[in-house]
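Example for tutorial group B:
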């Protein structure tokens, strides 16, 4: 058991980044995704899509999709809409071209999650921006970060550019094919030198594997039913974890380990992410 005391602060902040609550997938209009996160409405629960897919949000996403033609424009769109305020995060997101991480056939510069195969998605750009901003203080040059459920490797690459060559970033993903494709994506991106030098690594694994050191920053890209104790244990004193927690109803939680080892948690916003699960469960029906 973890020895830290757990203090849960329940006051959720306003939903500051709800640019559009949902969208149709850019590749397949019939495969609908919530643009606030990595969520794809599951086939087994069609009622979810009724809740989230309003005509207003679909129109807004269509408008966004038709207007934005480059990564730079996408980042500027996020800035103009108040979804991205940090200059450092904007600079990193401009440097790591999302178009290199989104599978061919999609419109890459849409503020929407997209299908990446294996019942997984790349998160929406405004969610990537939100997580980078929440972790910015713990992604200073030389710091260490862990990205669990690294998927396409986009956010992992952004983390690596934030901490620089003196830092260390590990991506962990349990679908080997996604690990292989994420490494190719990274090799084509501005993070390629960091991968080559070894300050950025991506492994096949889950919560309990490949986690070798305490981290200043931990990001989890899939929703856990509870905050996983092995991840709490891997957080350095002074460290911060951003993790979606819940099943149907999920909160993006910010978990902080104080210097005395005590833990505080607050809810940042409501989200919908794919579940943190076993490989077998994730690939069911795929
Ligand atoms: N941040 C990623 C999100 C990918 S979606 C991106 O934007 O590209 C969430 C990812 O978590 C999926 O790739 C899925 O395969 C992975 N995942 C789910 N459960 C996992 C587990 N138990 N261990 C490791 N990865 C997991």
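The residue assignment follows.
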């Amino acid at each position: 058991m973890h020895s830290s005391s757990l203090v849960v602060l329940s006051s959720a902040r306003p939903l500051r980044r709800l640019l559009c609550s949902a969208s149709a997938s850019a590749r397949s209009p019939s495969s609908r995704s919530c643009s606030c996160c990595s969520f794809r409405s599951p086939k087994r629960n069609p009622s979810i899509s009724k809740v989230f897919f309003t005509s207003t949000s679909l129109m807004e996403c269509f408008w966004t999709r038709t207007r934005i033609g480059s990564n730079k424009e996408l980042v500027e769109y996020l800035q103009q809409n108040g979804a991205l305020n940090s200059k450092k995060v904007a600079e990193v997101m401009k440097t790591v071209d999302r178009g290199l991480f989104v599978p061919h056939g999609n419109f890459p510069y849409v503020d929407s999650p997209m299908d990446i195969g294996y019942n997984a998605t790349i998160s929406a750009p405004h969610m990537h921006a939100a997580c980078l901003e929440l972790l910015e203080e713990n992604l200073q040059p030389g710091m260490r970060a862990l990205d669990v459920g690294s998927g396409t490797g986009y956010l992992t690459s952004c983390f690596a550019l934030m901490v620089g060559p003196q830092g260390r970033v590990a991506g962990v993903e349990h679908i080997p094919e996604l690990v292989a494709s994420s490494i190719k994506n990274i090799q084509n991106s501005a993070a390629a030198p960091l991968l080559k030098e070894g300050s950025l690594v991506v492994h096949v694994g889950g919560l309990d594997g490949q986690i070798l050191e305490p981290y200043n920053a931990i990001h989890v890209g899939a929703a856990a039913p509870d905050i996983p104790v092995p991840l709490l244990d891997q957080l350095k004193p002074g460290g911060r974890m951003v993790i979606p927690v819940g099943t149907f109803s999920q909160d993006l939680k910010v978990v902080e380990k104080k210097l005395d080892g005590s833990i505080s948690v607050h809810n940042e916003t409501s989200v919908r992410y794919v579940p943190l699960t076993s490989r077998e469960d994730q690939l069911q029906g795929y």
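The first helix runs from residue 47 to 52. Compare this with the pattern of hydrophobic and polar residues in the output above.
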